[in-house]
Amino acid sequence: SQKIEQNSEALNIQEGKTATLTCNYTNYSPAYLQWYRQDPGRGPVFLLLIRENEKEKRKERLKVTFDTTLKQSLFHVTASQPADSATYLCAPSSNTGGFKTIFGAGTRLFVKA
Amino acid sequence: DTAVSQTPKYLVTQMGNDKSIKCEQNLGHDTMYWYKQDSKKFLKIMFSYNNKELIINETVPNRFSPKSPDKAHLNLHINSLELGDSAVYFCASSQGGGTGELFFGEGSRLTVL
Asked: Which of A34, A103, A108 should be substituted to probe chain B, the one whose Cβ sees the most B Cβ atoms within 10 Å?
């Protein structure tokens, strides 16, 4: 069955450093992959989308890579700030008679001042 | 001006009752979804509607019945509520038959006692 794995343990980093979050998927060939941010008690908020024919995508301090051979996406937050503390969700999408986006369990990021 | 709004935000009810959650989006999107986020924070897709037509129906008990009166609304009715139905239910919308980013509501926390 389709499986999405993200670091289950929280990631603690110092302000100013780069945080790298990993998303691995199996039994799946997504057409594209999205990353979302979720704060406690709130709905997920879209951050970035990367397509299967793209290797890398950037938006301000965020960078996403997508390796369809390794079946992996990496999400980087550079020059991290305490305000970046949140849960980050990996969400691959595929067309199964209707585009379906499924989510990983998320990785909790804590940025210390 | 809220893009995707859900009501109610909180719902506490007894086992066996029937309840509904309403969702409206003012983004002009053609696709709407219901996701369930359980206590382990997994966000699981339940249903997807495109232009009022059901296109994704995951393995969800038939006690759950979605209804889309028009493109801007997607409601979720749950019959004979069980303890395991306790979760946060998120409504979302997207454009292009689900080929892009999802816009989520703030969630409806359902507690079944």
From this structure: A103
| Cβ contact B56–A103 (<8 Å) | no
Tell me what the mean pLDDT of segment A35-52 comes to. Answer: 95
Question: Do residue B56 and residue A106 have CB atoms under 8 angstroms apart?
Answer: no
Rg, Å, chain A Cα set: 14
- Cβ contact A92:A109 at 8 Å: no
From A43, A91, A93, residue closest to B105, measured CB to CB: A43
pLDDT of residue B95: 87
**A96 pLDDT exceeds 80?**
no
If we measure between CA atoms, which residue out of B97, B64, B36, B24 comes closest to residue A43? B36
**Can you say whether the dihedral through the CA atoms of B35, B105, A4, A109 is positive or negative?**
negative
Q: How confident is the model at residue A97 (pLDDT cuts 50, 70, 90)?
A: low
CB-based burial label for A5 (10 Å; 0-12, 13-18, 19+): middle
The closest alpha carbon to B65, from B78, B74, B52, B49, belongs to: B78
Nearest to B48 among A42, A89, A98 (CB): A98
